[in-house]
Amino acid sequence: MRIDVLTVLPKLFEGPFSDSILKRAQDKGLVEIHLHNLRDFSTDKHKNVDDYQYGGGAGMVMRIEPIAACIEHLKKQRDYDEIIYMTPDGSLLEQGVSNFLSTQQNLMILCGHYKGVDERVRQLFITREISIGSYVLSGGELAAAVLVDSVIRLIPGVLSDETSALTDSFQDRLLAPPVYTRPPDFMGHKVPEVLIRGNFNEIEAWREDQAIKRTQERRPDLLD
Ligand code: 6GU
Fold it and tell me: CA 20 → CA 1, 24, 171, 192, 212, distances in Å?
């Protein structure tokens, strides 16, 4: 998979993309992440990427020209399956969307900033608008990093334990059951007997039961 990220703050990605699972996925050649600084596509003398909004009001708007130039530049080189805009008014990111995106070849992700992008960018180029939750971030960058992480870990070969992505919270619309490791007794707080006994069927049934209980208590909306 190839992911192109369009941003005014490429530095924000250096941390999340250069460690752990995302680093390993890139090192293994399973994913290529390319960062593009929108400022490099601005043709005015101050390399401005934003401007005042028509009609007045506080906050700058990202201009269409640098964004269009960057998108066209990339589209000339390959076809994109999705051109995603990260925005608080997009549709809420859910596991199913990450699952779908993980099967695609070429993704482009545009990070919004300031008051967002000129509406015509959305009309002309964007195939999908995604928000990661009902709160406002300073820009789309951290949200894009969240999206990229959730997608890349689903690509076959990225996780060392191939099955573990399947037992994540949300993968079957249930939260994950509790997990334990040694010691079996920590100052009187014991690991549940059923896990210690080691009967596979019994453990599976217990986990299922715990997952349902936990989901009922914490995220009843997932069960609807
Ligand atoms: Cl995608 N962008 C911004 N700026 N804020 C957000 C968001 C995205 N998702 C939730 N809050």
Answer: 18, 6, 22, 31, 31
Q: What pLDDT, on the 0 to 100 scale, is given for residue 167?
A: 72
Dist. CA 210–CA 179, nearest whole Å:
10
For residues 108 and 6, is the Cβ–Cβ distance under 8 A? yes
Domain end, chosen from 152, 187, 209, is at 152
Is residue 218 domain-resident?
Answer: yes
Report pLDDT digits (tens) over 99-140: 999 999 999 999 998 789 999 999 999 999 999 999 999 999
* Domain extent at residue 140: 2-152
> Is the distance from the beta carbon of residue 135 to the nearest atom of ligand 1 less than 6 Å?
yes
Structural domains counted in the chain: 2
Helix (H/G/I), strand (E/B), else coil: 194: helix
158 part of a folded domain: no
134 and 172 inside one domain: no
Q: What is the pLDDT of residue 109?
A: 98
pTM, 2 dp: 0.94
Cα of 135 vs centre of ligand 1, distance in Å, is: 7
Q: Is there a domain that residue 159 lies in?
A: no
Q: For the chain, what is the total number of helices (H) and then of strands (E)?
A: 8, 9
Candidate from 86, 92, 115 with most ligand 1 atoms within 8 A of CB, to mutate: 86
